[in-house]
Specification:
Helices cover 41% and strands 11% of the residues. The chain is α/β, with parallel strands linked by helices. It has 2 domains: 288 residues, 3-Layer(aba) Sandwich (Rossmann fold), CATH 3.40.50; 38 residues, no CATH class. Strand 7 and strand 8 form a beta hairpin.
């Protein structure tokens, strides 16, 4: 491998195994640059493009929550594990919302590793641990090239524009897509076949978060009905996820339309994001915040036996409220 200025000269025979997507998609470079300046947040979001295109930091801020979106393209548990080891202590979140969809547990994780290696300003021990776990020639080559760029140094030359094509980066890690609408197509049926390596790493991630006593919510963000209906063993996926932590499949809760709330089969447009986030926030507050604080507006003084406890009349109102909101986390 030779360098011509800041670009590598790769012999044709080696090109199939070399890919370095610096600044290519998802604003990973900008996100991993911003996270270095963020400390102590309320909510940390983890996951794939469903995450950085699905959780709008502005909506959560409007509800009083500071947050950071550490989603990256095609992120699998192996990358999630690496990012948590690198940033969890620094971000020190009060809550974690981890978007987990079937593809994250079936992928080999190579594509996501290249995205993170190429766009991390300095690859440390955690990048090497990730490469060893994946044990793939493309990841090794990208990390070798990244290490050479660190030495030269070249990694700080890229200034990624906030707006790229139809994408706009929003502080906090979210990427807003210009409004587009999905034209549904028939998607072939497929079975979710888990990668043993990814599932094992997923379990490590869950255990690490639980050991830190950080409240964790697993979420399957909405995807189009045309894509969702193609999975033949979704009930099994849901039942498995519930064994690990609090889990909500929003595809079973929100009534969204493919042609109105999505820009492609896999991602919500901004209309869908707003509906998804508002519903998630409503449920989040009921589950993790003081329930009495939420309900006090609906309860007058005659509903309490003392300052903190409802009487029979109050209990009836609370039960009715919960029945109307039976999709809590």
């Amino acid at each position: 491998m030779l360098f011509v200025w800041d670009r590598p000269f790769i012999p044709n025979i080696l090109r199939p195994n070399f890919k370095y997507p610096i600044g290519k998609f998802g604003h990973t470079n900008t996100r991993l640059n911003e996270v270095e300046k963020v400390n102590s947040i309320d909510i940390l979001f983890l996951g794939s493009s469903h995450t950085y295109r699905g959780f709008d930091s502005r909506i959560f801020k409007a509800h009083g929550f500071t947050s950071f979106n550490l989603g990256t393209s095609a992120q699998t548990p192996i990358q999630t594990h690496m990012l948590l080891k690198k940033y969890l202590d620094k971000l020190n979140p009060k809550f974690i919302i981890y978007e987990i969809d079937p593809l994250a547990l079936t992928s080999d994780g190579v594509e996501s590793s290249l995205d993170i290696i190429a766009n991390t300003h300095y690859n440390d021990l955690y990048s090497y641990e990730m490469a060893i776990k994946l044990n793939h020639i493309k990841t090794y080559n990208a990390l070798l090239y990244a290490s050479l760029r660190n030495i030269m140094p070249l990694n700080n030359r890229l200034v990624e524009p906030i707006k790229k094509g139809s994408d706009t980066y929003i502080n906090g890690g979210y990427v807003e897509k210009e409004i587009k609408y999905y034209d549904p197509v028939i998607i072939p049926k497929s079975e979710i076949i888990f990668s043993k390596k990814q599932l094992q790493t997923f379990e490590i991630v869950i255990d690490d978060i639980k050991k830190r006593k950080i409240p964790l919510q697993l979420v399957f963000a909405p995807i189009s009905k045309s894509l969702y209906s193609g999975y033949t063993n979704m009930n099994y996926f849901d039942s498995l996820m519930t064994t690990y932590s609090q889990y909500t499949n929003f595809n079973k809760i929100l009534k969204l339309k493919d042609t109105i709330h999505f820009y492609d089969a896999d991602h919500l447009n901004q209309h869908g994001v707003k509906l998804f986030n508002e519903k998630l926030l409503k449920d989040f507050k009921l589950k993790y915040l003081d329930l009495n604080a939420v309900l006090r507006e609906a309860l007058d003084p005659s509903c309490f036996m003392d300052a903190d406890h409802t009487n029979i009349k109050g209990d009836l109102i609370v039960n009715e409220y919960l029945e109307k909101n039976d999709t809590l986390f």
